[in-house]
UniProtKB/TrEMBL annotation:
This is Nucleoside diphosphate kinase. Its cofactor is Mg(2+). Keywords: ATP-binding, Kinase, Nucleotide-binding, Transferase. It comes from Tortispora caseinolytica NRRL Y-17796. Pfam families: NDK.
Length: 151
């Protein structure tokens, strides 16, 4: 199915460091399709909900504080296996362990400043998209290059 969707976010450090363009470029160049995008600073309660699975971790409070520290570029990308492949484009959670050529591998050093977020399963992508976007903010369109990307 080429209509799988994932939630990708450029975190406050990525926005402040001018990495919105380079990060979007990698998803575009791969052939994935942008279906929603906005710059938002949604606040503590929203970020606690987004990272609810990590609530018991010792780094949770610091993580939420960092995510609240500036605007986030929230996006939805669509394409065949985009959830799994999106995370490959991002690289390992700890940037020091991320392969060169990945976003975190090329642009980050500390795990607490790893510039981007990507959903880890189709199920969590659905939850995250519903948390960050209203249905009418998600675009449905056929990209002109579609038949040059998919056989
Ligand atoms: P990912 O963002 O790769 O899905 P995750 O969901 O396990 O990783 O964790 C969410 C974020 O929390 C991660 O991007 C950075 C932060 N984080 C994870 N593990 C951490 C740790 N051991 N120390 C500090 N921050 C951590
Ligand atoms: Mg995660």
């Amino acid at each position: 199915m080429s209509n799988e969707r994932t939630f990708i976010a450029i975190k406050p450090d990525g926005v402040q460091r001018g990495l919105i363009g380079p990060i979007i470029s990698r998803f575009e160049a791969k052939g994935f399709q942008l279906v929603a995008m906005k710059l938002v600073q949604p606040g503590k309660a929203h970020l606690e909900k987004h990272y609810a699975d990590l609530a018991t971790k010792p780094f949770f409070a610091g993580l939420v504080q960092y995510m609240c520290s500036g605007p986030i570029c929230a996006m939805v990308w669509e394409g065949k296996e985009v959830v799994k492949t999106g995370r490959v484009l991002l690289g390992a959670t700890n940037p020091l362990a991320s392969a060169p050529g990945t976003i975190r591998g090329d642009f980050a050093i500390d795990v607490g400043r790893n510039v981007c977020h990507g959903s880890d399963s189709v199920e969590s992508a659905k939850k995250e998209i519903a948390l960050w976007f209203k249905p009418e903010e998600l675009m449905s369109y056929t990209p002109a290059a579609r038949s040059w990307i998919y056989e």
